[in-house]
Amino acid sequence: AVVSTQSTWVLICMLFVTSCILEFIIATVLFRSGKKNQGDKFELICKIFLPIIFIIFNTFYWPIVMAGYYDGKYHQDVCTQQSAVLNTFLAIILYKCSKK
User: How far apart are CA 67 and CA 70, in angstroms?
Assistant: First the structure.
């Protein structure tokens, strides 16, 4: 199956929405279990880093997509190559995050 740039974008957006929901659940559990300081720290870290990571992703994603569009090479082969680059970038980020 061919992964398009649109499906990559939708996947990333869904991952960020899911991570926000998970952040809310984890913070709520920490608050309710009496670990207010840990809950506050976790919530602050997520409020700072999730938007930063999304901005970094957009900084790389849109120039790659638009470069193919403005060069007149916007067809399925370019989309597939761009998606491969973006998927590799995403895999590296997820791998680094899972190691911590």
Answer: 5
- What are the residues whose beta carbons fall under 8 Å from the beta carbon of 65, sequence distance 6 or more? 5, 82
The angle at the Cα of 63, spanning 79 to 78, to the nearest 5 degrees, equals: 15
Return the axis-axis angle of helices 5-32 and 76-99, rounded to nearest 10°: 20
| Nearest alpha-carbon partner for 94 in 19, 30, 40 | 19
Q: Residues 50, 20: contact at Cβ < 8 Å?
A: yes
- 62-91 pLDDT, tens digit per residue, is 887 777 666 665 555 555 555 666 677 777
Report the half-sphere exposure of 82 (CA within 13 A, side-chain side). Answer: 23
Q: What is the pLDDT of residues 14-69, one digit of tens each?
A: 999 999 999 999 999 999 999 999 999 999 999 999 999 999 998 988 887 777 66
pTM of the model: 0.62
